[in-house]
Design goal:
Blueprint: H1 4-39, H2 44-63, H3 80-102, H4 107-121, H5 124-127, H6 131-134, H7 147-163, H8 170-186, E1 199-200, H9 205-218, H10 224-237, E2 248-249, E3 256-258, H11 262-272, H12 277-291, E4 292-295, E5 298-301, E6 318-319, E7 322-323, H13 324-336, H14 340-353, E8 356-359, E9 362-365, H15 369-380, H16 382-385, H17 404-432
Antiparallel strand pairs: 1-2, 2-3, 4-5, 6-7, 8-9
Helix pairs in contact: 1-14, 1-17, 2-15, 3-4, 3-7, 3-15, 4-7, 7-8, 7-9, 8-9, 9-11, 11-12, 11-13, 13-14, 13-15
Length: 433
């Protein structure tokens, strides 16, 4: 019979072995991954093949049973379980649209999976978090704001219609597009709330994109709101110092509650770059000027202006001023504008720190979950639909510090092994006694 002290020692030994052993294995994998990704310079075809592998992984996840449950959020707290499953499917649909435009041979399959994603997100489990504020959008003709949830739904509907002649979802596309056109028109700032009192500049881009696509397909004139929105932003919500979009404001008074952030501007660029080309290209150049920093010789992006950088669920982890989500979305913008030195460098970092993992014909990021894999897939897919460019030669990255990253990871691995030894050796000695 074990005594309580022996049980405690056994528990301590097991916990130490699990924590430090797992950490050691993780760091060894990261070190090997970092060395292989930094030493090997990928070309366009390498990236393209990886994007299709990420597509295969996300298809597989969509084929699995849906485990989404009802959740609630006020837009600031507890939103990851409410918003991220929706965003994962929305980004998958937009990225899949890019793949189908690049390779028409997969259009039928792409139609099937986008349609499957749409049918999933119009279930109550996906919109229940928004009903306390705006009601059930599928059971009423009165659509008020709801820019976040319905904005993502509209992106999915428009992505489907861009690659398909099927009219299965046209009634929803017409209903929400018309409602948003009137809501934008009646808003004094040509903007819509995502939650009551929360008007996020970046989230205007989703429904605005869909309105333009609706015009292209059905001959409406809803995208007049796109021009009005751009003019309103330029006059009232582009900060004079940085020349970038502010993040959060009151849609009625125009009172600005939060200044520019990287994710606000990169998100806007990703969804409107082909709708407002000059406006978005200026945003990208200014975003690089203000937010791009160098770490170990690599270009990365911080999230906030100034020195203080605070991690939230929205930004993802911020380490050494580096914002994971901002850097990911900036990678997509770099792909759009042919900024290959930045794109390929950020791609390397995503592979290293996201721990890209390939198995069979699939690829995922071990750190970041499905939302991280979908975001990387979406952003990297932008390289497939940008203006034609000679991608036959790899970009030569100027980085005199390439060896530092794997060296740091190997050093951490050594420290973790030493800590593992220190953690378990007392327990081993006590068991011998």
């Amino acid at each position: 019979m074990f005594k309580s002290k022996q049980i405690f020692k056994l528990f301590s030994f097991t916990a130490g072995l699990f924590i430090y052993g797992g950490g050691t294995i993780l760091l060894i994998i990261m070190s090997a991954n970092a060395i292989s990704n930094i030493v090997y310079q990928k070309q366009f075809n390498d990236i393209k093949d990886e994007i299709f592998m990420e597509y295969n992984y996300l298809k597989m996840r969509l084929d699995e049973p849906d485990k989404k449950t009802k959740t609630s959020t006020d837009g600031f707290k507890d939103f990851t379980s409410s918003e991220w499953p929706l965003m994962t499917l929305s980004l998958f649909c937009y990225g899949t649209r890019n793949l189908a435009l690049y390779d028409p041979s997969i259009k039928k399959e792409a139609e099937y999976y986008i349609a499957k994603a749409i049918r999933r997100v119009i279930k109550p489990e996906y919109y229940n978090f928004i009903t306390p504020y705006y009601g059930n959008p599928f059971s009423t003709d009165e659509i008020n704001d709801n820019a976040f949830y319905l904005g993502h739904v509209l992106v999915m509907l428009s992505s489907y219609r861009e690659i398909s002649d099927d009219s299965s979802f046209d009634d929803l596309f017409h209903k929400f597009s018309l409602a948003f056109y009137h809501n934008f028109k009646e808003s004094p700032t040509c903007s819509l709330d995502s939650y009551p009192g929360q008007c996020w500049a970046s989230e205007q881009a989703l429904p605005l994109r869909a309105l333009k696509i609706h015009d292209n397909i059905f001959g409406t004139n809803y995208s007049a709101m796109l021009v009005r929105w751009k003019n309103t932003m330029t006059e009232r919500f582009i900060e004079s110092q940085s020349h970038l979009l502010v993040t959060l404001y009151d849609k009625q008074s125009g009172y600005i509650m939060e200044g520019p952030r990287t994710i606000t501007n990169t998100w806007t660029i990703l969804f409107l770059h082909d709708m407002l080309p000059e406006f978005c290209e200026r945003l990208y150049l200014e975003t690089k000027k203000i937010f791009l920093i160098k770490r170990l010789g690599f270009p990365v992006f911080k999230e906030y202006m100034g020195e203080k950088q605070v991690s939230t669920d929205d930004t993802g982890p911020i380490i050494w001023s580096i914002s994971a989500s901002s850097t990911c979305f900036a990678m997509g913008c770099a792909a759009i504008y042919g900024d290959d030195e930045v794109f390929y460098a950020l791609n390397k970092l995503a592979d290293c720190f996201g721990m890209a993992f390939e198995y069979g014909d699939k690829r995922k990021y071990l750190l970041g979950g499905d939302i991280g894999t979908a975001a990387a897939f979406f952003c990297r897919s932008m390289i497939l639909v940008r203006d034609q460019k000679d991608d036959s030669e790899p970009v030569k990255l100027q980085n005199d510090y390439w060896f530092v990253l794997p060296a740091v990871l190997l050093l951490l691995t050594g420290l973790m092994i030493w800590r593992l030894f220190l953690a378990i050796s007392p327990a081993v000695r006590s068991f011998r006694k």
